[in-house]
Amino acid sequence: MIKRATLTISFAILGFFSLVAWGAIDSIICSMYPSLCAPRAGACTEIDHCPTSLHMIVGLVLFVFGPPIAFGIVGFVLSKKERAINRLLAAAVIAVLVHWLLTFVGVRLLKF
User: Fold this and answer.
1) Nearest to residue 92, comparing CAs of 29, 23, 8?
2) Greatest alpha-carbon span in the chain
3) Which residue ranges traverse the bilayer (predicted)?
4) Hey, is 2 helix, strand or coil?
5) How far apart are the C-alpha atoms of 23 and 100, rounded to whole Å?
6) Do the Cβ atoms of 30 and 87 come closer than 8 Å?
7) Average pLDDT score over residue span 11-23
8) pLDDT, tens only, 78-103
9) CA–CA gap between residue 66 and residue 39 (Å, rounded)
10) N or C end of the chain: which has fewer CB within 10 A?
C-alpha cells in the first residue's frame, strides 16, 4: 500500500515539474518564434482587463492541476503490479513527452 501511494505521489510531483519545465520550454519557443505565440484575433490577453468567465477558470484549473492528476493516475495504474525500474522510467518519460506534445498542440497550434 505504501509503495502504491509513493509511486502515485511521485508521478503527481513529476506532473507538476513537467508543467514547470514546459513553461520554460514554451518561453524559449516564444522567443525564437514570436509569430507562433501571437494570440488569436479578438482574444483578450490581459488578466486585469478581461472579464473572468467560467471557461477561463476551468481552463486555468485544468492547465495547472491536470498534469499532476493525470500523472498521478498513471503512477497509480502502474503500481498495481511489480514493475522494473526501467519500465517505470520509460512510462515517466513517455508521459512527459505526451504532456508536452499535447500542450504544444493545444496552446500554440490550436490556440485553446
Assistant:
1) 8
2) 52
3) 7-25, 56-77, 89-110
4) helix
5) 10
6) no
7) 95
8) 988 888 888 999 999 999 999 999 99
9) 22
10) N
